[in-house]
Amino acid sequence: MAFITASWNPLGDAFYRKTDLYEMSWSLRDGLRDSLVAAAPYGGPIALLREPQRRSPSSRPQLEIYSASGGTVASFPWKSGPVVQLGWTVSDELLCIQEDGTVLIYDLFGSFKRHFSMGQEVVQSQVMEAKVFHSPYGTGIAIVTSSSRFTLATNIDDLKLRRLPEVPGLQGKPSCWVVLTQDRQTKVLLSNGPELFILDNTSCTVVCPPGLSPQDGNIVHMSVSFSYKYLALLTDSGHLWTGLSTLQEKLSDVDTKKTMAPKQMLWCRRPKSQQPSVVLMWDRLLLVVGVCNETIQYPIEDPCVLVGEMDGVRIISSSNQELLQEVPLVCQDIFKIASMAPGALLLEAHREYEKSSQKADEYLREIKEQSMLGEAVRQCVEAAGHEYDTNTQKSLMRAASFGKCFLTDFSPDQFVTTCRELRVLNAVRDSSVGLPLTHTQFKQLTLQVLIDRLVYRQFYPLAIEVCRYLKIPDYQGVSRVLKHWASCKVQQKDLTDDAIARAVCMKVGDSPGVSYSDIAAKAYECGRAELAIKLLDFEARSGEQVPLLLKMKRSQLALSKAVESGDTDLVYTVVSYLKNEMNRGDFFMTLRNQPVALSLYRQFCKLQEQETLKDLYNQDDDHQELANYYVTASYREKRLEGRLSLLQSAVDEYNKAKNEFAVKTTEDEMRLLRFQRKLDDEKGAGLLGLSLQVTMETLLSLGLHKQAEQLYKDFRVPDKRYWWLKLKSLAEKEEWDELEKFSKSKKSPIGYLAFVEVCIKCNNKYEAKKYVSKVTPEQKVKAHLAVGDLEGAADAAIERRNEAEIGAVLSRCSASNSLVIERLNRARAAIAKK
């Protein structure tokens, strides 16, 4: 496999290689000259602004956005102010920083999203230089103005501007500067001649890197690594100092022998790097300087732009794009000439096997003798992930599969996962997609973010295929893609509402996790209200339909949907909204067309808004309910005159409703109230507001028998009720003589057993016995038992020859009542014979 190592260049103990990513599909007439270029990491898009300082209204600069492979995404003339810097956010939004400190934000397709300012002081002094950086907080911006002051925003999505302290002796902009993120703090490191300063929120501190002396010259360029862990400083004498970004430890000090400042300087290292390096670019030269003090030189033909990645550096020119990176150790072990690593032997064994050569067995035996076959398979699988060429990937994975056949307890998980991930990576690396992700970047980015980026770029079919191929749950995968597709679909102005609604319904169907109301909301935002209504018809959950319909001012439809749902809370929500939005007349008319909603609103008004209920009944000419309302309202009225007035209104409404019974009852209530007021005035009885029965009970308890008698006659109280009331009242007051007189006044309509039971209840057996003789024969046994007269009860039961009554008496007898028991048993036997 010597041809693979042909492009490798040694650097200390490691090797570096350049991998061709794309032949750029753009056609740039003047290349990248006189252009402001910004490329996003992780294979992100490229923004290019030609001649950014051009200010002629007749010839404006052109802002162009391309995919990483050079495919045109958007292009539009720049009509705003002069741009100092372009940059990309972590979510692939383009930041355009102007001289006046205004930051304009565009999406990937060139649509303006929003803007913000870096502060009023910046407007006055203007921006000289700006940098876009990424930190744990998000995407940040740092600027330096013509007054030599720095302003920092660590997260543009939660904008908090920080003006950093002044730098002593600094005139204009510094020689060079970078943003550092350390210990969750964002700082600025800058040079002013040979001096280095660190700016934080409160102070400006002079720092001196270990091993870098003022004799090395002025610092003209500096670069921080992708992880913010390492720092590189270049002096005008060509000395390159590298060390930790904390400036506590030096890694190397290399004399590049280049006194001219480079156009760009970036770190090139990978996780677990053997030999990190710094890449410097001049017009015709690319220099890779390792911390081992060795260098690699690459000639450059066209102007290029370097893009820092977590595991290398992308080199973008007008014609092609390459990835410069340190060769992973596992790839070195396998492909290095004369390598005896297990992976190298397994790869060679598979090549010989495909030739049907017996050497395959010899290689396999050699690996097995070292007990390294499992390690060989692992190396081949890992190396395949790091390779960009699909043929090399296949060779390595086939070799791994071949070696796997000779293992009995080898877990296939890593092999299967790598196969799937490589297939996905090869698909997104295609120039038509333009996402040149390495396997390391893919692992850092995560699968979900990759799918989000495909969706954001509107590669919906590919995103869906990836989700299905990797068996991602629908709500995280396909459904999320379809939702975004539908949201974009409703914005297509060349299709009719019906066509879009049908297309969305056919595509989305009943996919879990997709809400038609969200899609409809997007359609409404785009000014397509009718399309939104059509889409809402597909929404199964009324609770999701109604809020948007209300927002769209389709209140009638919202009310209908709420009623159809059967959800009373939802109906109340709509009714409450309508009440606040409509005048009262229209509101009531709307409710009349929805009986369910009207009924629920009435229930609400009964509890919360009584006056509204009255207006509602008046609107509907509902005399019966309006009269009921007046009656209910009368109970809340404290003054008698007000209560009588409300009851009179109720009588009038009952008459209109032709409810004679209610009229009579209400008039009786009014008579009772007047009677109670009269007695209250005369006797101070406190009767007002009591019911008829309670009033009579109170009068009897107060000894006002004549007044109670009057009520009894005036209101035609049933005889039984009146006798019961008077019986209980006299017994409770222990007016036994009056009770006896009352019992003899006329024949009792409630019988005399009641007298017996009430007397017993009041613990007066003597008085109870007076009424036993008056009790009817059917109730004699009960009366005698009530007063404890077992012999009398026995006589009555035997006389009536009633077996049930005999049994009741027997159950009350004890052993001392043997004579009574004997008599009862003989009577029962006699009855049984007959």
From TrEMBL:
Membrane topology category: Peripheral membrane protein
One of the record's GO molecular function terms: actin binding
Tagged with keyword Protein transport: yes
Domain Vps16 N-terminal: 5-416
Domain Vps16 C-terminal, residue spans: 514-826
Keywords on record: Endosome, Lysosome, Membrane, Protein transport, Transport
Function statement: Plays a role in vesicle-mediated protein trafficking to lysosomal compartments including the endocytic membrane transport and autophagic pathways. Believed to act as a core component of the putative HOPS and CORVET endosomal tethering complexes.
Complex and partners: Core component of at least two putative endosomal tethering complexes, the homotypic fusion and vacuole protein sorting (HOPS) complex and the class C core vacuole/endosome tethering (CORVET) complex. Their common core is composed of the class C Vps proteins VPS11, VPS16, VPS18 and VPS33A, which in HOPS further associates with VPS39 and VPS41 and in CORVET with VPS8 and TGFBRAP1. Interacts with RAB5C. Interacts with STX17, MON1B. Associates with adapter protein complex 3 (AP-3) and clathrin:AP-3 complexes.
Protein name, UniProt field: Vacuolar protein sorting-associated protein 16 homolog
Organism: Maylandia zebra (zebra mbuna)
